[in-house]
Amino acid sequence: MNKRKIGAQKEEQVCAYLLSEGIDIRERNFRCRQGEIDIVGYDGAYLVFFEVKYRSGKRAGSAAEAVGTAKQRKICRVSDHYRMLHRCGEDTPVRFDVVAIDGASVQWIKNAFFYIAR
Questions:
Q1: By CB neighbour count within 10 A (0-12 exposed, 13-18 middle, 19+ buried), where does 101 fall?
Q2: Domain map of the chain by residue range?
Q3: How far apart are CA 51 and CA 83, in angstroms?
Q4: Which tens digit of pLDDT belongs to each residue from 46-98?
Q5: Residue from 55, 39, 65 nearest 6 by CA
């Protein structure tokens, strides 16, 4: 199985998990010129941008470690575009979460990072 298919399969697994945890998923694979966000949803009043990372082994480090500062900046830029496009007000609370999958272990990291301004 190629990496794209594995990634899609893992994102599907994460969506099922998040739905079972009460997340209202609004969008998957939101794309714009600035980049892509894997999953966008609401956790109560919070608009949450989810990054899904998968690692089959430890050779390349953990899945959570793969969401470095450059990736965080990109996610923040895409979130800006999403919020503008969907007319989310300045008063809408926003959160950036990572769902890290290492082998069979799934870890949902809430508030994985804070918003990074341009």
A1: buried
A2: 3-113
A3: 16
A4: 999 999 998 877 766 788 888 999 999 999 999 999 999 999 988 999 999 99
A5: 55
CA distance 38 to 102: 17
**Helix H or strand E segment including 109:** strand 105-113
The residue count of the chain comes to: 118
The DSSP code sequence of 68-100 is -HHHHHHHHHHHHHHHHHTT--TTS-EEEEEEE
**Architecture of domain 3-113 in CATH?**
3-Layer(aba) Sandwich (3.40)
Please state, in angstroms and rounded to a whole number, the distance separating the CA atoms of residues 57 and 37.
24
> Read out DSSP for 4-66?
HHHHHHHHHHHHHHHHHTT-EEEEEEEEETTEEEEEEEEETTEEEEEEEEEESSSTT--TGGG
pTM across the whole model: 0.92
